[in-house]
Amino acid sequence: MAVAKAIATIHTAETQYLSKYGHYATSLAQLGPNGADLVDKDLASGHKAGVELVLRPTQAGYEVSAKPIGFASLGAHRYYYSDQNMIIHQHDGAGPATVSDPVLGDPVHGTPGRI
Question: Which of 31, 61, 90, 91 could make a disulfide contact with 79, Cβ separation 3.0–4.6 Å?
C-alpha cells in the first residue's frame, strides 16, 4: 500500500498546485522542494516505495505511472496507473498499467482504489 500512498500524495499535491498556479504540475520535480515544495525530495526524484514514479501532463490534466524497480531481480510484478480522476489501476505482470486495468480495490485486489 506504500505505492498507493505515494500516488495519493501526488494527487493531493497536484490539487494544491492547481489551486495555487491555475494548472497542474508537469513533473514530480515541480512538486518537490526545489519547486512548489508539496512533496518530499524522494518522491520528487521519482523513486519511492520500491517503484519508479512518473508524472506526465495530458490534455485532461495529468497521469501518474509506477513501475517496480528491478523487476527481473526482485520478482516484482505490479504496475500502477492513475490520473486526475484519482482512481488507481493495477496491472499484474510485465508491462505498464493503464486506465483499462482493474481498479485497485476491486474484489480481486480487496483494497481501496479511490482516494
Answer: 91
pLDDT tens-digit map of 8-48: 999 999 999 999 999 999 999 999 999 999 999 999 999 98
Which helix or strand (DSSP H or E) is residue 5 part of?
helix 2-21
Residue with grid cell 506504500, as numbered in its chain: 2
Q: 36, 18 in Cβ contact below 8 A?
A: no
- Is the torsion defined by CA of 39, 40, 44, 48 positive or negative? negative
In angstroms, what CA-CA distances link 91 with 48, 79, 81? 18, 5, 8
Residues 83 and 60 sit within 8 Å (Cβ to Cβ)? yes
Distance CA 52, CA 43 (A): 9
Grid coordinates belonging to 70: 528491478
pTM: 0.85
Q: Are 79 and 89 in contact (CB under 8 A)?
A: no
Q: Could you give the CA distance from residue 4 to residue 88 in angstroms, rounded to a whole number?
A: 7
What does the alpha-carbon distance between residue 43 and residue 25 come to, in Å, rounded to a whole number?
14
